[in-house]
Amino acid sequence: MKSLITAALFGAFLSGCAAHAHPPQQTHVRVPAHQVKAWVWTPGYYRANGVWVRGSWSIQHIDRHMLNRNPRTHVRWIKGRKRPVPPPRQTRHRRRQHRR
To answer: Cα(37)–Cα(61) distance, rounded to whole angstroms?
Structure first.
């Protein structure tokens, strides 16, 4: 009788999902319909240790309205198009030296 109960319990617990090897669920990253792939300019910044990191272009998914609001920082991505040229740097003003 004891072995019959044990066999029934094993049968009940092993018939569930725990006994079957299901492959892991693959999640697909879905981009919302209102987003577009675009070249985005990331400006330069200082790291925490004081090192300057130059600005660069990267391909990102952005909202479609950002293309019209920021036309100089976002460029629509077209397949086969290369990385855009960096935006022109602002001219740094030299300090004027006083003549004596």
So the answer is: 5
According to the model, what pLDDT value does residue 17 have?
Answer: 53
Residue type, 32: P
Give the confidence band of 66 by pLDDT, cuts at 50, 70, 90.
Answer: confident
18, pLDDT greater than 70: no
43's tokens: 């400006």
The per-residue b/e assignment along 36-45, b for 16 or more CB within 10 angstroms, e otherwise, is bebbbbeeee
**CA-angle at 55, arms to 54 and 60, nearest 5°:** 140
Going from N- to C-terminal start, the domains of the chain cover 31-80
CB 50 within 8 Å of CB 30: no
Q: Which residue has the tokens 């999902």?
A: 17
Distance, in Å, from the CA atom of 52 to the CA atom of 50, rounded to the nearest integer, reads: 6
